[in-house]
Design goal:
Oligomer: single chain
Shape: globular
Number of strands: 7
CATH architecture: Alpha-Beta Barrel
Radius of gyration: 17 Å
Number of domains: 1
Number of helices: 8
Strand content: 15-25%
CATH topology: TIM Barrel
Largest sheet: 7 strands, mixed
CATH superfamily: Metal-dependent hydrolases
Structural class: alpha/beta
C-alpha cells in the first residue's frame, strides 16, 4: 500500500498565512509514520534549512519546494491587473533543482517584486532543470481558468508547462478542502488530465495542523488582509 505524502504545505515562514511550526509538523509526521514531507511556503525559501535539518533529525525525507507567484505576463510588468498573480507549486527533485529554486526565488525578489515576489514563464523555462511543477490551488493558473469555464485556455497553459518541465515532471493537483469551487474544478482537472495524459497528484494545501485551528487561521488571514 502506497503511503500518502504531503507535497503542498505552508509553514510559519508563509508569513500571516501558514501556521505550521516546523518542529511541530515534523514531529507529527514522525508520529504518523510518514516517510517524507514537503515544504512549499509562499514566495520564500526562508524556512528550508531549518525544515531540512529537523526532518532529517526525525528520520523523515525532506522534500524542498516553494509555492511561487507567477506573473500573468512579464515579471517586470508593474501594471495592476484584474488577475494579478497565479500560484505554481515547485519541488526540487535533485541538487540542480534546489539550486534553480534558489535562483528563481532570488529573481522573484530582485526582478519581479510587485506586491509579491514574482517569476514568469520565461525565467521558469530557463531554470526548470531538476524541478517538478504542480498546478497549485484554486489560485493556480490552470485551476483558475477551469473555474472560469475556459477549458481551451487551460489546455494551452497545461501544454506550456509540459514544454517547460517535461511531461513526466508536471502534475495536476487535485484537492478537496470542502470548497464548492474545488468540486467544480476537480472534475475538470480530471477531464484535462485524461485528455492530455497528465498525471494527477493529491495534495491538501495545508496551512494549519488541527481542525480546531481553523478559527485562529481565519484571524491570521484577517490580519494579513
Amino acid at each position: 500500500m502506497e503511503k500518502f505524502v504531503h507535497l503542498h504545505l505552508h509553514t510559519e515562514y508563509s508569513l500571516l498565512d501558514g501556521m505550521f511550526k516546523i518542529e511541530e509538523v515534523t514531529s507529527l509526521a514522525k508520529k504518523y509514520k510518514m516517510n517524507s514531507l514537503a515544504i512549499t511556503d509562499h514566495g520564500t525559501m526562508a524556512g528550508v534549512v531549518k525544515f531540512y535539518s529537523k526532518a532529517l533529525e526525525k528520520g523523515i525525507k525532506p522534500i524542498i519546494g516553494c509555492e511561487m507567484y507567477i506573473a500573468p505576463e512579464s515579471r517586470f510588468d508593474r501594471k495592476k491587473r484584474e488577475v494579478n498573480n497565479h500560484h505554481i507549486t515547485l519541488l526540487a527533485s535533485d541538487n540542480d533543482g534546489y539550486k534553480n529554486l534558489m535562483a528563481l526565488s532570488t529573481f522573484s525578489y530582485l526582478d519581479g517584486f510587485y506586491y509579491k515576489p514574482r517569476i514568469d514563464k520565461e525565467i521558469l523555462s530557463k531554470y526548470s532543470k531538476g524541478l517538478i511543477g504542480m498546478s497549485g490551488c484554486l489560485q493556480g493558473e490552470i485551476p483558475y481558468l477551469l473555474s472560469k469555464d475556459n477549458f481551451e485556455q487551460a489546455e494551452k497553459t497545461a501544454l506550456t508547462y509540459i514544454d517547460i518541465f517535461g511531461k513526466d515532471n508536471f502534475y495536476l493537483e487535485i484537492m478537496d478542502n470542502n470548497l464548492p469551487e474545488q468540486k467544480k474544478v476537480n472534475s475538470k482537472i480530471i477531464q484535462l488530465a485524461r485528455k492530455l495524459g497528465i498525471k494527477i497528484v493529491a495534495t491538501n494545501d495545508c496551512h494549519y495542523i488541527r481542525k480546531e485551528d481553523a478559527f485562529a487561521h481565519e484571524v491570521l488571514l484577517c490580519i494579513q488582509t
